[in-house]
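Readers of this paper often ask what the protein records in our data store actually look like. Such a record has a labelled line for the sequence and another for the backbone structure tokens. Nothing more is needed to write down the fold, since each code stands for a local backbone conformation. The remainder of this section carries one protein's record, kept here as part of the documentation.
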Amino acid sequence: MTGTALWRSWLYVPGDRIDVIDKALVSEADCVIIDLEDSVHANNKEIALSHACTVIARNPDAPIVVRINAVGTPWHDKEVVELSRAQVQHVRVPKCESAVEVRKVSESLGENCRLHLLIESAKGLQASDDLAAASETVGSLGLGEADLRADLGITEDTYLSYARGRVVASSRAAGLGAPPQSVFVDLKDDTGLRQSTEHARAAGFFGRSVIHPCQIQIVNEIFTPHSSDVARAREITESFHESASKSSSVLVLEDGRFIDPAIVKSAQRVMDLAAIYGVTEPTTSTKEDHHD
């Protein structure tokens, strides 16, 4: 299992469907989110919680996240207690607005449980810095864009740019990994999913929540470095380190590219991801191999 900051695809499955959960665990998703919230009817909350605890017990090393119900709902307190007993390692907390509430959830679940916070309102968005730094157990920050759109009255995707930029900046300022992007809801629009995910990657996100296994391949592909990306990253790091050994802190490659420590840091991240996901460098680099 890779670190949460390096999960590419976060697959949601309804907690009351044990058959679907079992299938998800053997899918290509980097992690599985067992949902106890939106996808589960009120009458089935108890069985969903029971399924989540059972699956965690059967798969202690699997990359499983449980999305609980929000603080203040009738199911929240029991879920936290039962999941703590089950030794859950990752919990996604919806509708976060208060650092104080996040700390209470953290204390209830214990120091070994990573919290993945969802911001879904204007109040939560304005508190994003405080939420990201609320506890050492906070593992990631993200947006629940459907609820956020409704709260802000946004009807066009472009007007979410401020919210997306803010959650990226808050995550970085708190020392967290890049946030995962919210779901893309049209299962038949592969082109739209690809474009939206590429835009998210360019905007500072890493990974994405998905709502069906058919979306995993595209999301994983976009967040995995291509072989020519790795070759280019290695060229940058090796050339820079050679230049640094000659007391130079900047470098201009033969093709005119200017290289400084910030660019080297980005290149090293590409190489780290390549090592995790087994990407090897090509024998011959071609333009078609890499992301534009």
Remarks:
- Residues 285-292 have pLDDT under 50 and may be disordered.
- The chain has two domains: 4-222, 227-289.
- The domain at 4-222 is CATH 3.20.20.60 (TIM Barrel).
